[in-house]
Amino acid sequence: MAIRHNYWIVLVTFLAALMLTVMPLPDWIVAWRPTWVAMVVIYWSLALPQRVGIGTAWVLGILLDVLQGSLLGQHAIGLAIVAYVTLKLHLQIRQHPLYQQSLFVGLLVAIYLCLVVWVNGIIGRSPHSWSFLTPVMTSMLLWPWLFVILRDIRRRARIA
Amino acid sequence: MTVDRKMDYLETVRGHLSSVVYPIQYLVNLPVKVGDWMSESLDTRENLLKENEKLKAQNLLLKTHTQKYQSLALENQRLRGLIESPIRQRERVLVADLMAVDQENSTNKFILNKGSEEGVYIGQPIVDSSGIMGQVVHVGPSSSTGMMVTDNEHAIPVEVVRSGVRAIATGEGISREMRLDYVPPESDVKEGDLLVSSGLGGHFTEGYPVGKVSEVELHPGDNFMTIKIQPVANLAKAREVLLVWPGTSDINIETDPGTVATR
After folding, report:
1. Which chain A positions have a beta carbon within 8 Å of B102's beta carbon?
2. Do A63 and B32 touch (CB under 8 A)?
3. B6 and B129 housed in the same domain
């Protein structure tokens, strides 16, 4: 079967992730917002390691920085590292069942959040509690769901 | 990252990039906008009439206040002329909408739908109907980021209305409060005192309310008092804010109809 060039769909998913990240949420749930961009970056670097990689992740991170008003480069370096680790291990991770992938995603998201918070700490916006890690939980819980959705999108669009 | 933190070069880059992400912000804001529009256009006639009446009454009240204000302003100018101190200038203001877009460390920053195309600049004071809300920290072509007075990177020179004591109010970050720094124990600051901007530092115009003192404590052994302040601006609920151009004297009417007034 001929591979069609439907890569714009990847862009759409990135856009959706960015939108979800800045979408206003009620106060009690804000701390639980999953790290959508990191999760989508992980998915596409697992599925299309030859197309989506550190560069894409970095650009997305810069956009996220501008969107969220953080230091330029803060999310960029976090996402680049997430993409790097995923690319290194993608052959292994792909074989794992979904719940094991969830653990891997949780670990990566935790590293990513720690990097962001670490930079914040250096410039004096240190966190007040460990609650900055709560997105790890939601990201892990939502990973199987996101994985299935993105896989279906990918199959329907025949992106390989 | 270091460059962004320490220098200004990247501010222009950020400005250009913010026009790239503006569509995203616009899209996220859209449902809220549509919701507002729906609830406005589906409102009953009675409700609208009632609201209209209320606004009319309020307008009348405000008008009488302005009459008084004008005569007072003239008197103030005359008196200032007598003692040869500089006359306070008028300022230009522009109404901006808050966009429903979340920011990192969420509650202390917000996005406005006006940018450098309207002349917004970094460090510009933002006020709402009851007091100073914060200032502009990043500017893009058609949007800008504001920082609230309660952000832990924000500080504003203030003055106690009752006693004239001057101090600096710093944001507390997470608790939506501010504190007064370096106030010696013998200063005259009490609970319930109103703080207004003092205009020192040249950033903010003087005389806008900033906050109310909610707690004064003196721990024995401390060099300074511990003073907590509750901001008077409606930080949590504000949807529309005013951008102020201090000291622009003779501009009275702006091109954007209906949204601009002078003070």
Report:
1. 21-25, 30, 68
2. no
3. yes
